[in-house]
Amino acid sequence: MDMKARIKSNGHIVNVNETGERVISKNGIERVYISDDCSGIYYSQSELEFLQTKNEDTIDWNQVRIQEAIAETQAFCNDKTLSCEKTSKMPVSQSDALVAELKKKGGQE
């Protein structure tokens, strides 16, 4: 998906695409983006400020899913009657259900 971003070092606006690669930087593990102008320039996530457009879905559903699974896991860990297997599977199922419902409510599906 083509995204519009501002290069923090010089203020230029560029269109970039996520490469799927990750790099380790002083900011931790970051996503890598490539400029779509055929220049072959790569940027790490911390070098860019992403700009939102009104018609663009800017929700990172995988991140929502992960955060919800973490919250659910914390809640299930307090329940000593559940096995480790259930404690690991139930939060994932519930976070998937939450994301599906949120997408429906937001008209994203």
Average per-residue pLDDT, rounded, comes to 79
Discrete helix count:
2
The global form is: elongated
Unreliable residue stretches: none
Compute the CA-based radius of gyration. 18 Å
Q: What is the number of E strands?
A: 5
How would you write the strand order of the largest sheet?
4-3-2-1-5
What proportion of the residues form beta strands (DSSP E)? 25-35%
> Helix amount, in percent?
25-40%
Fold and architecture overview:
By secondary structure, this protein is α+β, with helices and mostly antiparallel strands. The chain folds into 2 domains: 3-50, no CATH class; 61-105, no CATH class. Helices cover 36% and strands 29% of the residues. The chain has 2 helices and 5 strands. The chain has helices at residues 61-77, 84-105; strands at 3-7, 13-25, 28-35, 42-44, 48-50. Strands 4-3-2-1-5 form a 5-stranded antiparallel β-sheet, with no helix packed on it. Strand 2 (13-25) and strand 3 form a beta hairpin. Helix 1 packs antiparallel against helix 2 (84-105). It is elongated, with a radius of gyration of 18 Å. The protein starts with a strand and ends with a helix. The mean pLDDT is 79.
